[in-house]
Amino acid sequence: MKRNHAETVLTSIPYLIWMVVFTVIPLLLVTYFAFTDETGALTMANLSAVREYVAVIFRSIWLAFIATVLCLLIAYPLAYIISRAPQRRQRTYLLLVMLPMWINFLLRTYAWMTLLENTGIINRLLGIFGIGPLAMINTQGAVVLGMVYNYLPFMILPLYSVMTKIENGLIEAAQDLGAPRSTVFSSVVLPLSMPGVMTGITMVFVPAVSTFIISRMLGGGSNMMIGDLIELQFLGNAYNPNLGAAISLGLMILILFCMSMLNQLNEEDKEGMII
Amino acid sequence: MKKIFAAALAAALALLGSVSVLAFDHQAMFEGMDADYYTRFQGQDISINVYNWGEYISNGEDDSLDVNAAFEELTGIKVNYTFYATNEELYAKLRAGGSNYDVIIPSDYMIGRMVKEDMLEPLNKENIPNLQYIDPSLLGMPYDPDTAYSIPYTWGTVVLIYNTTLVSPDTDVETWDLLWNEDYKGNILMFNNPRDAYGIALKKLGFPLNPENQEQIDKATALLKEQKPLVQAYVMDEIFDKMAAGEAAVAPYYAGDALTMIDDNPDLAASFPREGTNIFVDGMCIPKGAKQKEAAEMYINFMCEPEVGAANCEYIGYSTPNTASLELLDAEITSNPTAYPSREVISNATYFSALSDDLNKALDAGWKELLADDESFTFWLVPALLLVAVIASVAVVVRKARKKKRESY
Amino acid sequence: MKKRSWVNTGYIGLVMAFLYAPIVVMAVFSFNESKSRALWTGFTLDWYKKLFTNEVILSSLGHTLLIAIISAVIATVIGTLAAIGINAMGRWMKSLVLNTTYMPIINPEIVTGVSLMLLFVFIRDRMGIPLEMGFLTLILAHITFSIPYVILNVIPKLRQMDKNIYDAALDLGCNPAMAFLKVVIPEIMPGVISGFLMAFTFSLDDFIISYFVSGPTFSTLPITIYAMTRKKVSPEINALSTIVFLVVLGVLTLSNYVEAKREAKTSY
């Protein structure tokens, strides 16, 4: 006898109000600002101005894409290895992976700054071997490195959580049936790990494409990304909140588009769950 | 085990306890000041928000005077001190709203702009008696003709800083061309704010420091774009560490900071380019709607105390506008040609002036264009990528439909 | 078989080295006598001394903890109630609310930060309420981005829970509130706790959203650190990062140890 407790819905009312005030309305405000100019008149000028920054947008997408792929390549084997390790060790490995995540993200990026500088540690070590100082900082490579470093744990964790669910029995069964290593991988491990891959990609690509700290600290101000551009309009050297709102709107739409593409690839029917 | 722990704790406490007592004698300094005026707000638990440039106040390091601490001690007013990197950032923060500052210290042209846009409170000069000490030649300037909104904090020039060990001795260092010199590709730093960067480019082109029309701005933008591949980074205060460590060979920056850098790294030297440079005055102002106007005026007055001004400028290296402070400074400092340049250099230097709205917009647009510039990008990538996206979506949809068809058997 | 495990461990070691190299370097140079970040000149504890007497850093640390705790608690309360309500919704409504809830999670932080800043400025300018960027705006912002994570953690637990338990409690004479407290809450407690921890952690480390909604009177630690990196850098930052590392190491090791003990106890 399943009773319908319709009144339970009422407990969510405080949240619904909060959601409308602090999530929906601000986004509507962003849209409003994007379509008006400083006097409040409707205009498409901001959106067409975004066109001028296509180079920046593409650079952001490209660098974020490379960073995501690198994270995936590095994290996948690692997650697999950890998931097959003996139970006790797994916990230690996880701890070691999670630890850097808890250290403040600015400090971590700053740490790389000190390593990569022309007179930094790495160059000094190379200098001992007579290799000339490599210009590592303030390049696109440094920005990608910063992204990979900061977001790698976010790729490892979802992959790991999905791989622990792949029982050893499955793999052994496939091997018993005569499948070579590559087929075991492509037919058993890969498909089962897809949800984790999707989650990981989401958790790396979104912050990577919209970062402005990493590009500022490691990119030297000459590798501007979308995040820098937006920050510039609001709190930086060029005050234009309408343009900033337009770019933010564009960024949001871009992310939503990428997410929906990813969701299409992920065939499992989940109720909007991400983690 | 316990013994070791106790010993460690004792050692730690001893180390912490040995934090040095104030090396600067505040009490002696306070004696010359008007106690009635300054202690008016004692015990009222007031605090003011001071928004200043970074590295722009004496903060007690290296046995210098900690200005904010001294002010708090004397007046009982707490100082919330935060900083910005450029005038434009200050402007954006004030316009964006929501933050309440009591004292800000913009540069001349920004003061002019803020006055025009009604963003400043007129000062009550009766509350700032120390105004009498300020050099009259620095008052009544075009950006603030009646000295109604600002009191000069420091003045200075922009100089060219170079590392003598990284720059070959026969290079011409007295020209802005040095910043475009291919020999130092990747070792050049540049200003990360539009007015200073454009000022240099315009001077190199022989134009006035303050652009007069769109054409000059366009030519300067083109020149800056040429420079971009040679630039290591666009920086403001990050320059201190970079030049000190020898990360870069040449950079333009403000004279006071140049002196601080040279102090840290004796390999560095400064020069005045012959094309002419920028001379500036930074002034203390009170933004419109500040909550603690009187306390703010007290702070400004405190800054103009001869001893405070002298100690402050001695630490930050900038030139003092305060005639009484000037007398208190060492001859070694006042005879330094970088801090107190010759008449010849000053006559070749120009102040920034507030630009018209149109020119401001054009400058902003040019600056953004410069920062976003990417030579490795062609416009054809856009339709190409869109095409790929469309094909990908179609492929996914088709695959799904086929799968559904297969499963429906 | 042995060869493979050698390669495996080697790979793990390599990745760990990559993850920890900068942290270790920072720690080493926090004891360096000179301000140089690459040249070792001598051993000193000066920077640690300076760190402990640096008022700005200490006060922002306090602020950060305060905001994290308050916002996490409020977010957990609102979020748990919300999760219970959402779980009882009809399919269409549930889907709509859930998707809107996940917006702040998917949305880049900078967009969330900008939108909240615009909201607060709008409230101040157009509605005349004297709202200043500071403690209140920070708390509101942190609660806003924390609630979705709480909901995210509680809903699966609600789904796993056997719905009949609640009805059974009612049948046995409890009123709805008591039934709720005695039956539902214990079932979903793990989700509530992990939601709380998530909210707390994200609030501690948040930079981008705080950057847009903070003011001069109330600064959080990440914002202070950012300001420190923009000017002449002092190895105090190195000292700070080393201390943070040690604290986090301690906390995680402790929690790991506790959990290992618990697991050992429950597996006989």
Automatic annotation (TrEMBL), chain B:
It comes from Yanshouia hominis. InterPro entries: SBP, Sperm_putr-bd. CDD domains: PBP2_PotD_PotF_like (cd13590). Its main location: periplasm. Residues 1-23 form the signal peptide. Keywords: Membrane, Periplasm, Signal, Transmembrane, Transmembrane helix, Transport. It comes from the Bacteria. It is found in: Periplasm. This is Spermidine/putrescine ABC transporter substrate-binding protein. The chain crosses the membrane at residues 377-398. It holds the Pfam family SBP_bac_8.
Automatic annotation (TrEMBL), chain C:
Keywords: Cell membrane, Membrane, Transmembrane, Transmembrane helix, Transport. The chain crosses the membrane at residues 12-31, 65-89, 101-123, 135-156, 208-227, 239-258. It comes from the Bacteria. Residues 61-255 form the ABC transmembrane type-1 domain. Gene3D superfamilies: MetI-like. It holds the Pfam family BPD_transp_1. The keyword Protease does not apply. It is a multi-pass membrane protein. InterPro entries: Bact_Polyamine_Transport, MetI-like, MetI-like_sf. The keyword Transmembrane helix applies. Its main location: membrane. It is found in: Cell membrane. Belongs to the binding-protein-dependent transport system permease family. CysTW subfamily. This is ABC transporter permease. It comes from Yanshouia hominis.
